[in-house]
Amino acid sequence: AETPGFAARFDSATLYNAADLRAIDSYPDRRTGATMVYLAQRHAGIEVYGAVQPVAVLPSGKTHGLAPRRFVRGLAQRVNATEPRLGPSAAVSSAEAHVRAFMSAATSEPEIATRTDAPNEGASAAPVAYDATEPRLVYEPLADGSLRLAWSTTLTTETGVAQMWAVRVDALTG
Q1: Beta-carbon neighbour count of residue 113 at 10 Å?
Q2: pTM of the model
Q3: What's the chain's Rg over C-alpha atoms?
Q4: CA-to-CA distance for 22 and 172, rounded, in angstroms?
Q5: Residue 134: pLDDT above 80?
Q6: Dist. CA 127–CA 144, nearest whole Å
Q7: Coil, helix or strand at residue 111
Q8: Do residues 156 and 166 make contact, with C-beta atoms less than 8 angstroms apart?
Q9: Which residues, other chains included, contact 46 with Cβ-Cβ below 8 Å and sequence gap of 6+?
Q10: Is the predicted pLDDT of residue 13 greater than 60, yes or no?
């Protein structure tokens, strides 16, 4: 979604390039008359994970919320790559392997309330099968300020205890 004139005001009001922003959602606020716009920062069409900033565009065209603390300055200089070496299916396999390794390394099992009316009670435990959302490329912000190209996916399971894992896998190394 585009907001007419907004990009020029954003460029002049901040040190961020409006070409690196994309409106991912918007809705009118009936109480104030403002339009709430949610901007995501991206580079080469790939979003920066977690870099979403709400902005209110008033009927007069003025904006509020231009303190984009979640955005990365100098975006183009901080990314490590724009093309993945690892494909999406390999990324899902890597994500599953990391989750399985994490779960097997857990030192204590969570306490789970058992149901006496549970079906298949006493059946042997089957391996956990994960369903994955379609992986998408993102930039993962790191503590040193750099951005790593990564595949983002969510793994879920209904086997045993329901689980949901939001996972980002390095798109170069897995």
Answers
A1: 4
A2: 0.76
A3: 21
A4: 25
A5: yes
A6: 38
A7: coil
A8: no
A9: 82, 137, 138, 139, 149
A10: no
Helix, strand or coil for residue 44? coil
Q: Tokens at residue 61, please?
A: 């065209």
Contact in structure between 6 and 26 (CB atoms under 8 Å):
no
For residues 136 and 3, give the distance between their C-alpha atoms in angstroms, rounded to a whole number: 25
Which amino acid, 27? Y
Bridge partners, 56 (sequence order): 36, 64
How far apart are alpha carbons 114 and 169 in whole angstroms?
34
User: Cα separation of 69 and 151, whole Å?
Assistant: 24
Smallest CA-to-CA distance from 142 within 55, 83, 72 is with 72
Phi–psi pair at 94, nearest 5 degrees: -65, -40
- Per-residue buried b or exposed e for 62-79, using 16+ beta carbons within 10 Å of the residue's own CB: ebeeeebeebbeebeebb
Dig out the tokens for 102 from the structure.
């994490």
**Each residue's pLDDT tens digit, 16-28:** 677 888 999 999 9
Six token digits for residue 64: 């509020």
Q: What is the pLDDT of residues 72-126, one digit of tens each?
A: 888 899 999 999 999 999 999 999 999 988 888 764 455 444 444 444 444 445 5
